[in-house]
Amino acid sequence: MSLPAARKAARASRTIEAGWTPYPKCSTARNRLLIDKPAGGCRLSQNSTFGAVVFCSYGGFWLSFWYYATHIAPTLPSETAHSATGVFLLAWTLFTIYLTVAAARIHRAMLTTFGLLLATFILLTAGALTDTGALTRVGGFVGLATAVAAWYLSAASVLASTFGRSVLPLGARK
Description:
single chain; mainly alpha; 2 domains; 6 helices
């Protein structure tokens, strides 16, 4: 990580600790934990192991990434901090690989969402490990596409529950 990037990360860290974040409130670690952990428990009670693992694990991801970004990364030497971030993201990339394989057995919309999530993690990991800002930026944009795909899944679920039938197509599994 370059010195300007380290300064920018430290400034962002202080800003977040002061209570403001450039990300929507639903993406903050606190709110992700408050939403994802109970959602995971709910999915488990509905016998959806996949849903429970997804919600609980990625809720944990947001909490651990917040802690890493605000308490650990700022203490690392600026010339190696990017490598530590890359290793952190690599673990989540590997985890996302097997969830993507499982998502392929559900329906195409789920596979699309997890395919995009996997691409996001791959790009962010590669960007961090190589300290390449362009890869990180592209990973951020793919992450936004992942959010759109996840919102589509959410809308499909809410509409199907409300109307008592499938409204938005999810694509039959292969």
